[in-house]
């Protein structure tokens, strides 16, 4: 059976192997692999889009893997199939990993109804994110109806995850200060749902954090999200829940909130619009990254760049003129 057929076949060991093979193919940098991966993606595309894409972020230690394990096992118990993919900004910089080094999600990772794939270990954040996005499509085609994309709350990775998922969830610790960080970085604005984890440790602190973040979100909602029209019955206001991933408490309420969000988004057409906009944004992100790479690799640009750089540094050439001259070199027929 070819790769596509194995992917679309019934769940089982053969399908798992096919998923791993497909993802390896699309993570490869070899041109022939890339061509085959593109062909495969095009063939799979009609079979994608039926799952719910859930983004989860939070600082290291907030409890992401504990939470995903508890949620994943609960949902599998209800008949779902769950894929977990990671975007690890540390791996794209250093080749090391914040997310991948420890044994994570012990039960979920060996469950036949779950598929867990760590972040690609090299490439720029944009490249790693693009590959995760493609891996997500492979998992969807293979019939996983929930795809979780996880990231660590450092760098720009939250924006990348929010930009490829239907719902973005931010995990927080029940102490103040932490939440202020997220507000400062603009991450809170991305959140459709904020979860205060480890509420079992200090319920009062969790309740205080919940109130604080709820009011912060209200302010952000008034000023920061112009797409949210007033007086719209289908409108979703970002919510704040508290739970304990370790004790698996609050998981049901979390899933109810996700289900309600999904219903509102689907019913109002916002889900489809969000996905359309995301697909185009990804196309442009990839185009821009490809152009940047082609520019830097262009032989004439490479030979002109050192002199032009010095000229700009020493004020002999205006930066904008220098840019125009270098871009001119890229024109066909030049
Ligand atoms: P990650 O780095 O965000 O994936 O965090 P982990 O899931 O690895 O959790 C970090 C630590 O916090 C582990 O020792 C967990 O057992 C613990 N932890 C996670 N969730 C909870 C919780 O709800 N309550 C308590 N008390 N500890 C938790």
From TrEMBL:
Keywords: Hydrolase
SUPFAM superfamilies: P-loop containing nucleoside triphosphate hydrolases (SSF52540)
Residues in coiled coil: none
The EC number(s) this enzyme carries: 3.6.5.-
Family listed: Belongs to the SIMIBI class G3E GTPase family. ArgK/MeaB subfamily.
Superkingdom as given in the UniProt entry: Bacteria
Annotated CDD domains: MMAA-like
Pfam families given in the database record: MeaB
InterPro entries named among the record's database cross-references: GTPase_ArgK, P-loop_NTPase
EC class of the enzyme, as a word: hydrolase
Record organism: Ramlibacter alkalitolerans
Protein name, entry field: Methylmalonyl Co-A mutase-associated GTPase MeaB
Molecular functions per Gene Ontology: hydrolase activity
């Amino acid at each position: 059976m070819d790769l596509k057929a194995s992917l679309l076949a019934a769940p089982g060991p053969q399908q798992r192997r096919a998923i791993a093979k497909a993802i390896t193919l699309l993570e490869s940098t070899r041109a022939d692999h890339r061509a085959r991966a593109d062909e495969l993606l095009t063939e799979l595309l009609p079979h994608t889009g039926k799952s719910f894409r859930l983004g989860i972020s939070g600082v290291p230690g907030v409890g992401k893997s504990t939470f995903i394990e508890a949620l994943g096992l609960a949902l599998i118990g209800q008949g779902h199939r769950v894929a977990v993919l990671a975007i690890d900004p540390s791996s794209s910089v250093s080749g090391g990993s914040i997310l991948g080094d420890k044994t994570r999600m012990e039960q979920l990772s060996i469950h036949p109804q779950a598929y867990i794939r760590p972040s690609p270990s090299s490439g720029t954040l944009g490249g790693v994110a693009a590959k995760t996005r493609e891996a997500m499509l492979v998992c969807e085609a293979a019939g996983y109806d929930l795809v979780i994309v996880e990231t660590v709350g450092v760098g720009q990775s939250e924006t990348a995850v929010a930009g490829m998922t239907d719902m973005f969830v931010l995990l927080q610790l029940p102490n103040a200060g932490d939440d202020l960080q997220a507000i400062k970085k603009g991450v809170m604005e991305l959140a459709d749902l904020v979860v205060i984890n480890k509420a079992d440790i200090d319920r009062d602190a969790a309740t205080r954090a919940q109130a604080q973040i709820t009011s912060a979100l209200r302010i952000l909602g008034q000023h920061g999200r112009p797409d949210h029209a007033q007086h719209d019955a289908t409108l979703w206001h970002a919510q704040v829940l508290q739970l304990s991933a370790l004790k698996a408490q609050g998981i049901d309420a979390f899933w109810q909130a996700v289900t309600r969000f999904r219903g509102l988004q689907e019913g109002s057409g916002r889900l489809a619009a969000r996905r359309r906009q995301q697909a185009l944004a990804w196309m442009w992100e990839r185009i821009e990254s490809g152009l940047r790479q082609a520019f830097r690799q262009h032989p004439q640009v490479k030979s002109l760049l050192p002199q032009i750089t010095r000229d700009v540094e020493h004020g002999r050439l205006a930066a904008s003129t220098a840019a125009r001259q270098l871009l001119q070199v890229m024109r066909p027929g030049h």
